[in-house]
Amino acid sequence: MKKILFASTALVATAGVAAAELTIGGSARFGLAYNEAETNETRIEQRMRVNITGIAETDAGVKLEARFRLEANEDDHENSISGKGPGAAGFAVSFGGLRVDVGNVSNVLDSGDQVDYYGYGIGFTSFLEANSNFNGPATGFGAGSADATTIKARYTVGDFSASLSYKETRAQARTATTLWSAATGGTSTVVYNDDAVAADEEYQLGLGYTLANGMSLGAVYSDSDIAGDYWVIGLNGTAGAIGYTVMVGDGDNQQDTSISASMNYEVSSATSIRALVADGGMTGADTAYGIGFRHGLGGGVTLAGGVGSDSSSNTKADLGVSFSF
After folding, report:
1. What integer pLDDT is reported at residue 11 of this predicted model?
2. Which residues belong to any copy of the Porin domain (predicted)?
3. CATH number at residue 252
């Protein structure tokens, strides 16, 4: 990550600000991805993300941050932001053990503050993750639009931490567009865009504790008008060369209790093997499982790949490289 430090008082004009900093960094990946459920089963996978973060700190030690993300994907792959400019910004204020985020930010579950919701993903795209059979409301990075407001607070003291998030989504009506065509004799056609969004309020509370043996135990409870109640409990840690996550969750929006486990085994300082299994969840969901590898090539470059089956029994696989800058 490259950092540009603005020390000039001409650029740092706010009274009482001790220092300001702009960081630019990101990640990229490309390779082959396979999904038997898609029309074009094998495709070129590519993605580039650039994160731009402005940081300032007052003389009293209060740290302020503002960040937005640029992202581009391959044109033929389904995504909503490829080729577009940055989305809404996310802001944060932190002092001591307290941090408050607002705007285009994650809620408690998505942020991983208390529970490692995604575990050790398979493949260089993480096409399978520990939450594969979970239906928890993990929303973030996209929630900071004009129709939604997200705020999250986290407080840490010693080995204990607590997080609270609130998200309000305002109702957005179905829109209609009138199209006029000379080719059809000047007739007009009304086209409806099915982008209606229902109003919703969501609260999430998370608690976490780091145990003496290196394990971390956490829990998240969520309540929203649309999804209803949802809870997740997770345990993660390391034992020698093995890293692991175990998670269980259930809620009003799924039929069965979900359970998953993921593992990362360090074969050497550069190579690791990953595996995961997830079961339960929505009605008719099948057991998701996969195995993969990661190998560091140096300079922040990683070669990775994997193969597995998702909760719809579709075979997925990928192979490619990722790197950070």
Report:
1. 39
2. 7-314
3. 2.40.160.10
Work out how many domains the chain is built from and give that number. Answer: 1
Confidence of residue 188 (pLDDT cuts 50, 70, 90): low
pLDDT digits 0-9 by tens, 308-317:
999 999 999 9
d(CA 3, CA 26): 12
pTM score over 0.90:
no
Domain membership of residue 216 (yes or no) is: no
Identify the pLDDT of residue 196.
58
- What are the strands, taking DSSP E only, across 145-186? 148-157, 160-169, 175-181
pLDDT digits (tens, 9 = 90+) for 18-47: 568 999 999 999 999 999 998 889 999 999
Q: Is residue 196 part of a domain?
A: no
Residue numbers of the domain that contains 55: 2-106+116-143+230-324
DSSP result, 44-64:
EEEEEEEEEEEEEEETT--EE
Count of Cβ atoms closer than 10 Å to residue 220 Cβ:
30
Q: Is residue 299 part of a domain?
A: yes
* Exposure string over 10-42, b if 16+ CB within 10 A, otherwise e: eeeeeeeeeebbbbeebeebebebbbeeeeeee
Residue 178 resides in a domain: no
